[in-house]
Design brief:
2 copies of one chain form a homodimer.
Chain A: E1 18-25, E2 30-36, E3 39-45, E4 48-55, H1 60-70, E5 80-86, E6 91-96, H2 103-107, E7 109-111, E8 119-121, H3 124-129, H4 141-153, H5 157-161, E9 165-171, E10 174-181, H6 184-197, E11 206-209, H7 215-223, E12 228-231, H8 237-246, E13 249-255, E14 258-263
Helix pairs in contact in A: 1-6, 7-8
């Protein structure tokens, strides 16, 4: 198997991402456990406070931009004029040329499932139901195994401390961009932010997540224009329905040599 | 091992909780997979719309009451005058004798981690940091193994369809109340609602969750007055910190014969 060469990934050497905590194991022996940090990050769009997210905060700029993109608060062609991150007061301000006001949108809020409760503002569901992914990108069965194996073996915060989710943007059988966070929605938003900032083409990519294939994961993948979504975890009915409507290839329960395809199987060769 | 006799648990015979979806497996064979349903449920408190949750919706009344309790929108001694659940328009209205208005609270919103993003309204963090659990309830090491084993073997929506989280209220080595949902926050809220409705004592109980021990899981357990929290999954640093501050016994990574205690080990005998 080839060596992973990610364009970007969590810096597992960064000790600010963990805390060492003293405790006892099952034998009553004193142990020191590594646990992940979660910190608040308040996101402003121009002069408006949008949300406070709990995050490991390794890539605040990508997280903020990806979050705003995935909530339709900035658009894919938006001109970002300035990003001001203030570590001390845990805020980040994204400034655009366009005037923005999402007071109305902020009022329409659906707390989604996910593992806990994601928040989706406004009419994203209605928008997504009209989207069709047209990409003719294919995935070979063997790539599914190869990607899963490489990603599982990548040194990660998950292997170091657990209690964290990962998302990976891949091309063919190569994982390229790896993001982790306490919320897998943060992980996917950080990837969206990186894609935006670096103008990465998405219609030839594959998205891998450790989390479940619920509606909001489908929405975010479709919004990013990625045609294939893989997870080691399971599906929800609404997730499957949205994937079928949008022509997304949905591969779940991908473990070892097994997987299930519940939407868009024609992209698998 | 004794047979499970739950007071309440998900009805795995209820076919409305699943959907059968056709797909292909790794060999390209046609299969029919069971996947869980997620549906919106909009919660009103008196005349005010509070939130829309995505849920499997098996116990809407418990979910709504537990959610409002855990968000400090109804208090533990609240008199609930009426509950109106309308299946067709997917709404539930909780009516209290007291006049309520949470317009201000609804504006202060922290999107927490969890697996996705939970939403916590208002100043719950500040309130919890001042709380101390005084219960002298103990847990035997062997009960941790017995509970984990019984819960894992219980017929559940997880075993049927996956992509779902479970929470269980236990006493000694007996699991009593089992709730599952697409969001583990919904599962814990349903338990909180059941406890409220049935006036169940909590300071002698043990809480088990399949999910991670993040800050908002600690907060909800402490708010319910339960002294011991167990998970098969890991911890976040802030979760551990809150558990220590509130004197909650926190047992994580409980798998097979192994576990770690990162707070309140004096309750383990």
């Amino acid at each position: 198997m080839k060596k992973n060469k990610y364009i970007i990934q969590p810096n597992i050497e960064d000790i600010s991402l963990y805390e060492k905590v003293k405790g006892l194991d099952q034998e009553g022996e004193r142990i020191s456990a590594k646990v992940v940090q979660e910190r608040p990050l308040t996101i402003y769009l121009n002069n408006q406070e949008i949300v406070t997210l709990m995050t490991i905060n390794d890539y605040p700029e990508y997280l903020a931009i990806g979050y705003l993109l995935n909530q339709n608060m900035i658009n894919p062609n938006e001109r970002i004029r300035k990003v001001e991150y203030d570590k001390d007061i845990q805020t980040i301000v994204i400034r655009t040329n366009r005037k923005t006001n999402y007071e109305k949108l902020l009022k329409k809020k659906i707390t989604t499932s996910g593992c806990a409760q994601g928040t989706v503002f406004g009419d994203i569901y209605e928008e997504i139901e009209k989207t069709k992914i047209k990409s003719k990108t294919k995935i070979k069965k063997i790539w599914i195994y190869e990607l899963s194996k490489q990603i599982t073996l990548t040194p990660s915060l998950y292997l170091e401390a657990g209690a964290i989710h990962g998302c990976v943007l891949c091309k063919n059988n190569s994982p390229l961009i790896y993001m982790e966070d306490v919320g897998r929605h943060n992980a996917i938003d950080k990837i969206a932010g990186f894609i935006f900032k670096n103008k990465i083409t998405t219609n030839d990519k594959i998205f891998y997540t450790t989390g479940r294939l619920t509606s909001e994961m489908i929405i975010k993948t479709v919004k990013m224009g990625i045609p294939i979504l893989i997870s080691r975890s399971g599906f929800t009915a609404w997730g499957v329905e949205l994937a079928m409507k949008t022509n997304l290839t949905l591969i779940g329960r991908a473990k070892g040599k097994r997987f299930l395809v519940l939407s868009g199987h024609t992209r698998i060769t």
